[in-house]
Design goal:
The structure is a single chain. The protein is an alpha/beta fold. Helix content is about 45%, strand content about 15%. The protein has 17 helices and 12 strands. It has helices spanning about 5-25, 40-45, 70-85, 100-110, 125-130, 160-165, 170-175, 195-205, 205-210, 225-230, 235, 250-255, 265-275, 290-300, 315-325, 330-340, 345-360, and strands spanning about 30-35, 50-55, 90-95, 115-120, 135-140, 155, 185-190, 215-220, 240-245, 260-265, 280, 305-310. The strands form 3 sheets. The chain has a 6-stranded parallel sheet, with helices on both faces. It has a 4-stranded parallel sheet with strand order 3-4-5-6, with helices on both faces. A two-stranded parallel ribbon has the order 1-2. β4 (about 115-120), α5 and β5 (about 135-140) form a beta-alpha-beta unit. α4 runs parallel beside α5 (about 125-130). The relative contact order is 0.12.
C-alpha cells in the first residue's frame, strides 16, 4: 500500500487495508510512504508497518531546493525496489502522494498487479502516470474514464469513516443532544483540522446577520483561530445560537444535527457530505495541488448538488449565497437528492471486491 502527504491520500489506503485484513486476517501488509510526511505517523497508529522513501515534491517557491530531486528520486526507486523484492506482495494499491509514484512504478515493472484509487475529480499527476500500468483505477466521481484511457475504470467512491455511516441519527434528536433548539435551522461549518481562516472570517464578518436570522451554528474553527474566536465577545454573547469548537470528535452527531453544511472541498469531506446528503456550500482551498478542490466543487455544482463561493468571493457572496439556501427548503431538498449520485457508502468493500475479482482471489 502506498499513499500519503495528506489525510485525503492516507485514509483511503488505510481503509482498504483494514477491509482486506477483515477478510484475510493472516494477510501481511507493507505501506510505503515519504519521510517526514504524516503517513509515517498515521499508518503505524492504524496498526500497519511502513517504510519511508526520501522522495519530495517540486518546490515552486524555492527553486534551488529542487537541485537534489533527481538524486532523491533515484534513491527512492532503489529503496522501493529493495523493499518490494523482499516483501514479495501479491498486489499493490496506490492512493496518490509523493511515495506512491516510485513505489507503484517499481511494483508494475516487477510484474506485480497494481491498482490506483483516485479521490478527486481532477486526477493527480502521479495517478495519471501510474494508471497506464494499472490493473484497474477506482474513482470517486463519475465520467472519469477519459482521464484514464486504456485503463479499466470503476466509479466506486471514496472510502469514508465507518462511524459516519453507522452513527447517523434523527436530526431533531441530534440537535437536542448538542443542546440546540430542535426546531431551528442549523448550519455546520467545518474547515479541516487546522481550520480555514477564510471560512472563519466569513462567519466573523456576518455574526450579526446570523443572529438576527435566528439560525444556529456549529462552528469547527480548527486549531489556528480557536482561542481568538472563542473569546470574541460578539460571538460568546450568543451561546445558545453559536457553538464554537476547535475539533469535532463525533462528526456523525454533528452531521445529523446539520440542515446545511459549509465546508472546504477536500475529496474525503465531499464524500462524507454526499453520504449524509445535506445541502452544502463549498469554499474550495485555492492552494491545493492543481487546484483540485475547485474542480471537486464544480463537479457537484454542475449537478446542482452544491453551491460554491471562492476565497475571493467570500467578502461579498458568502452570506447572500448561504441565505439563499436557508430560505429555500425546495432548493435544499433538490440538492440533497442530487448528492445521491456521489454517495457511496460501500466504496471500501466494493473496491476490495473488485481487486479480488480481477485477481481471481477468494476468501480463505
Amino acid at each position: 500500500m502506498s499513499g500519503g502527504g495528506t489525510g485525503g491520500h492516507i485514509f483511503p489506503a488505510v481503509a482498504i487495508a483494514q477491509e482486506i485484513r477483515k477478510r484475510f486476517p493472516d494477510a501481511e501488509f507493507l505501506f510505503i510512504g515519504a519521510n517526514g510526511k504524516m503517513e509515517m505517523e498515521k499508518v503505524p497508529q492504524a496498526g500497519f508497518p511502513i517504510i519511508g522513501l526520501p522522495i519530495a515534491g517540486f518546490d515552486r517557491g524555492k527553486l534551488l531546493k529542487n537541485v537534489t530531486l533527481p538524486l532523491k528520486l533515484v534513491a527512492s526507486l532503489l529503496k522501493a525496489r529493495r523493499a518490494i523484492s523482499k516483501f514479495k506482495p501479491d498486489f499493490a494499491v496506490g492512493t496518490g502522494g509523493f511515495a506512491s509514484g516510485p513505489a507503484l512504478y517499481v511494483a508494475s515493472m516487477m510484474g506485480i498487479p497494481v491498482f490506483v484509487q483516485e479521490q478527486n475529480s481532477l486526477p493527480g499527476k502521479t495517478n495519471l502516470l501510474l494508471a497506464k500500468k494499472a490493473a484497474a483505477v477506482f474513482t470517486a466521481y463519475p465520467d472519469m474514464s477519459h482521464f484514464f484511457s486504456g485503463s479499466q475504470t470503476h466509479f466506486l467512491g471514496n472510502p469514508v469513516r465507518q462511524d459516519i455511516i453507522t452513527g447517523l441519527t434523527d436530526s431533531r434528536e441530534a440537535k437536542e443532544k448538542l443542546g440546540l433548539d430542535k426546531n431551528k435551522l442549523t448550519i455546520l461549518s467545518v474547515g479541516g483540522s487546522l481550520g480555514s481562516r477564510t471560512i472563519n472570517n466569513g462567519w466573523k464578518n456576518n455574526i450579526s446577520s446570523l443572529v438576527s436570522s435566528g439560525l444556529q451554528l456549529i462552528w469547527q474553527t480548527g486549531k489556528l483561530d480557536y482561542q481568538s474566536l472563542r473569546t470574541d465577545s460578539t460571538i460568546s454573547a450568543h451561546p445558545n445560537q453559536i457553538q464554537v469548537c476547535e475539533f469535532i470528535s463525533d462528526m456523525a452527531l454533528a452531521y445529523s444535527a446539520a440542515d446545511i453544511i459549509v465546508s472546504r472541498a477536500g475529496a474525503i469531506a465531499i464524500s462524507e457530505i454526499a453520504l449524509v446528503q445535506k445541502p452544502v456550500l463549498l469554499v474550495p482551498f485555492p492552494f491545493a495541488a492543481e487546484d483540485h478542490q475547485t474542480k471537486n466543487a464544480r463537479a457537484l455544482v454542475e449537478r446542482n448538488a452544491a453551491k460554491m463561493v471562492t476565497d475571493e468571493q467570500m467578502p461579498t457572496e458568502f452570506w447572500p449565497t448561504l441565505l439563499s439556501l436557508c430560505e429555500s427548503e425546495e432548493l435544499r431538498s433538490e440538492m440533497s437528492e442530487n448528492l445521491q449520485l456521489f454517495a457511496k457508502p460501500a466504496a471500501t468493500q466494493q473496491i476490495v471486491d473488485t481487486i479480488l475479482s480481477i485477481l481471481n482471489l477468494n476468501r480463505p
